[in-house]
Amino acid sequence: MSYIYYDHAATTPMHEDVIRAYVEAASAGPGNASSLHAQGRAARGRITAARDTLARYLCCDASELVFTSGGTESDNAALFGAALAQRSNGRIGIVTSAVEHHAVLHACKQLEKQGFKLTVLPVDDNGRVSVAEAEAAIDDTTAVVSIMAGNNETGTIQPIAAIGEWARKHKAIMHVDAVQAFGYASLELRELPIDLLSLSAHKINGPQGVGLLYARKGTSFQPLLYGGSQERKRRAGTENVAGIAAFAKAAELAVSDRELRSRHAETMRETFLTRLGDLIGSESFVVNGEGAERLPHIANVSFLGIRSENMLMNLDLAGVSASGGSACTSGSLLPSHVLQAMGLPQERVASAVRFSFGLGNNSEEAEKAAQITATIWARLRN
Ligand SMILES: Cc1ncc(COP(=O)(O)O)c(C=O)c1O
Predict the structure, then answer these.
(1) What sequence ranges are listed for the domain Aminotransferase class V (predicted)?
(2) Residue 243 and which of 34, 53, 194, 372 are 20 to 30 A apart at CA?
């Protein structure tokens, strides 16, 4: 069976140029970037080149970039790194939002257990944080503010620049999880009031298991991992040379083709939703978060009266890969904390399916997927 992959927010297919970059680096022979011999120096050269490329596309200094194992590690390193460093300045406040990825929320809860004072900002029914509420929560005791650029379940874009300005006024460290937004939103770090930023390669057609933490020069930060002196002592451990080389290639493609990439994802999303509306009537489903500015590649759809696991199982059997909220949430079949925080009625939370679009999708597929979804909808409704 041929599959229609509509789960790009969970992970993306690797771009063929990225695979080429990975294979080239992986087949270049052994080389630990910390070794002094020629092969070690070659590995180091690949990492340096990748870091320079990423710094160019993020508009920051190469020395401000720390390679990690992915978005989860970057989020944890940012939160623990900044909060623990700020505690010695007498700052114990952490401000985040109710719709953050669990990599942020669970790290914040852990910090709360260690004595930090946690404020979780609510969101409106489109999943958006209010700037006024963020401003009221941030003061001179705030250590870290962590607000995502774009949500992984609904695509809702947050006002990170306005919140970052306020955080800066109070000398709080501003962290942004841009794992879903990278490659769709403009992230010119020199221009943005952001101190720490998390990225992950596998969301932009790069390999799994590689990520990046941007740490603005001068930001108070304690490492999460101790050991060797890799990454200027900010992240110990032998670097994933091939993964890093491939990540840089993926970032180059994602940023230089950003507008095209965004337009493609949005066209796929709108073609699918429009066709679905033609087939089952637009009153038969709700697109959650539709009233806010959103990332172009995500559609969170509630099929009223149909449980999400039933829809997902039938879609899977028919060859359409979608998901129910974030991947880990759907694995454990818990209702989405994001949709709950948006205050949606239980019926909408229990019937939500996330379709996410990207590389490799085309209009014929969108038509076919809409027809498959409509057929399943008609069957389940009866
Ligand atoms: C917004 C967001 N943050 C963090 C992560 C975690 O990234 P990784 O899978 O690279 O650990 C994800 C992954 O789904 C995400 O969507």
Answers:
(1) 4-367
(2) 194
